[in-house]
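Incident log, support desk, overnight shift.

02:14 A customer reports that sequence design results differ from what the structure should imply. Their input is reproduced verbatim below. On-call engineer (initials T.W.) acknowledged and began investigating.
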């Protein structure tokens, strides 16, 4: 990494736009991602999250705007970008006929790395898959398969990894396993851009959260900063802080869930979520 790469954001997105015929998918999207952090792109289905990831990973060209990844322009130097990243899509890309270890060895060989067996064994240990390494991937649980998929993505030590809705379809225990893996990645210096539609996932993992709605970034900040957009609600003598769900629904125009006790005559939080509050 050059000195300039070390000083600038790991990912920088400026005024990115993308349309498919008359459908405007992304509109003037802007954000930066600090190196070694977890950045969550939070939005509902159809918000444009996967389209943006495809642009940043050089699989799709933007109509307008610029983006750099690891200091490289995604349009001008796509080869350099690809050498700096790894992409894990919504569905695990493991070969179920092969064992877990054989999947890892195969990817290491495709990347022309020396000692693919040692690389595979190291990753199996790192992701707590050593005991299952010689089993076919078809026998793995959803969480194990996703951990193997992420392990395969890390072969070659890319400084930046894109995780596009990595816990879609997983049960609660498997989701927790993947969350732990993502936290370990960031703890070891990997920059993670995570797309998700799960509010608790963004709340658990992200250093910063950008809310993407109808192709636009409508808010971007830390969890604490986003919560400050809504005032706390008072229930009896307890002050209730707004959750990320409250913030998300207020910003995208949804309604907040009813508080406990609504409708049965008992005391509870009966506030109406206010309109979006612009930061000063």
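02:41 Re-run completed on a clean worker. Output:
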């Amino acid at each position: 990494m050059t000195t300039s790469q070390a000083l600038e954001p790991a990912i920088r997105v400026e005024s990115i736009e993308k349309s498919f015929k008359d459908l405007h998918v992304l509109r003037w999207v802007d954000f930066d991602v600090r190196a070694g952090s977890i950045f969550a792109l939070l939005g509902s289905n159809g918000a444009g999250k996967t389209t943006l990831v495809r642009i940043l990973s050089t699989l799709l060209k933007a109509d307008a705007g610029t983006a750099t990844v690891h200091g490289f322009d995604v349009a001008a130097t796509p080869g350099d970008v690809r050498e700096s990243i790894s992409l894990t899509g919504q569905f695990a890309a493991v070969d179920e006929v092969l064992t877990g270890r054989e999947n890892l060895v195969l990817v290491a060989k495709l990347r022309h790395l020396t000692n693919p067996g040692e690389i595979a064994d190291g990753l199996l240990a790192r992701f707590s898959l050593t005991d299952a390494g010689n089993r076919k991937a078809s026998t793995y649980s959803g969480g194990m398969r996703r951990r193997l998929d992420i392990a395969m993505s890390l072969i070659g030590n890319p400084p930046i990894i894109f995780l596009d809705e990595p816990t879609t379809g997983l049960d609660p225990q498997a989701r927790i396993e993947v969350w732990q893996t993502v936290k370990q990645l960031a703890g070891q210096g990997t920059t993670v851009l995570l797309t998700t539609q799960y509010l608790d996932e963004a709340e658990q993992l992200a250093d910063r959260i950008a809310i993407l709605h109808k192709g636009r970034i409508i808010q971007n900040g830390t969890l604490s900063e986003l919560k400050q957009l809504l005032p706390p609600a008072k229930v009896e003598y307890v002050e209730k802080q707004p959750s990320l769900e409250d913030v998300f629904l207020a910003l995208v125009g949804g309604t907040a869930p009813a508080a406990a006790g609504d409708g049965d005559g008992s005391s509870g939080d009966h506030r109406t979520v206010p309109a979006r509050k612009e930061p000063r």
